[in-house]
């Protein structure tokens, strides 16, 4: 269904070898997690592979694809969440990926959101803890990722919010919403 | 204009002596801060005095005043932000305070919000650091409160978010919005 070799060639061109190798690691880990959690492994691999497809070329693609970023709730063109939202558009229009599950997993891989699908959680998590990532507490999170996706999401969101607070940086509202949603769900709130 | 003695009598009845004494300390500190930042000292005193007027009686007042809490974005009747939102209604309808500045300062004293007035910031801050409050780092925050309200707000919001994360508790979205707004403002974003 997907011409993976063609996607890979285009990716190296677009995001460079270093980021491409990161994408391969995310794709592989996403596929492993998809197997554990019994969701479509190919979708997980493709979403992992292309999750950063807009990175470094945000401005180019905004112009080329005529993307209206005013709805993205981003602060500036340097906002790190921009590449995920634009990435979903680029994956669709440049990489010809039409699967909505994959596109949404790309779109929300940086911020998270409320009521995420298993695939969305897997891409968010695989990006954060692929084998070359290293930060305090990552081994606990890696262990959790093989047992409980929601617990892992909460650990990652909390750790990211605390990091952004320490940097006095803006925190995307979607990340707050994602975190509160997981807590409410754990506390048994019915919506 | 305000019958302060009557307000005080009603308050002791409603919230008990312990919480009443806290309210007196908040009122006094709010008045001091109002003097420093050159806003209406009487409004600050009244807002500080009545900020907790609905506390412990949330359910009673919801029924009595026929308050629709569905718009409050609260999780449950135990949500600690409930007393502030209901407090604004109680201050208006039970304590006969009609001044919108005071009512808004009561309404947002727990969560904060974006684009707060000086009076709103003062009540939020006075509640958090009145002389009997004690938590790690409070002395730095007390020092900051006499020099820079926005810096103080950010310190308090960050410290509260980190505390709630450590408790795995829900964080009210308004607090995130308040925090991000202060950061954006500091970074010079024009809205």
Architecture overview:
The structure is a homodimer of 191-residue chains. By secondary structure, chain A is an all-alpha fold. Chain A is 64% helix and 0% strand. Chain A contains 9 helices and no strands. The longest helix of chain A is centred in the N-terminal third of the chain and has 33 residues, at 4-36. The first copy, chain A, is globular, with a radius of gyration of 16 Å. The model of chain A has no long low-confidence stretch (mean pLDDT 94). Chain A binds chain B through residues 75, 154, 158, 161-162, 165, 168-171, 173, 176-177, 179-180, 183-184, 187, 189, and chain B through 75, 154, 158, 161-162, 165, 168-171, 173, 176-177, 179-180, 183-184, 187, 189.
Strand and helix map with partners:
Two copies of one chain form a homodimer.
Chain A: H1 4-36, H2 41-50, H3 58-64, H4 82-93, H5 100-107, H6 118-129, H7 138-145, H8 149-166, H9 173-186
Helix pairs in contact in A: 1-2, 1-6, 2-5, 2-6, 4-5, 5-6, 6-8, 7-8, 8-9
- Gross morphology of chain A is globular
List the quaternary state of the chains: homodimer
Percentage of residues in helical conformation of chain A: 55-70%
* Strand portion of chain A: under 5%
Mean pLDDT of chain A: 94
- In N-to-C order, the SSE pattern of chain A is HHHHHHHHH
Based on secondary structure, the structural category of chain A is mainly alpha
Parts with pLDDT < 50 across at least 5 consecutive residues of chain A: none
Distance between the termini of chain A: 37 Å
The main sheet of chain A comes to: none
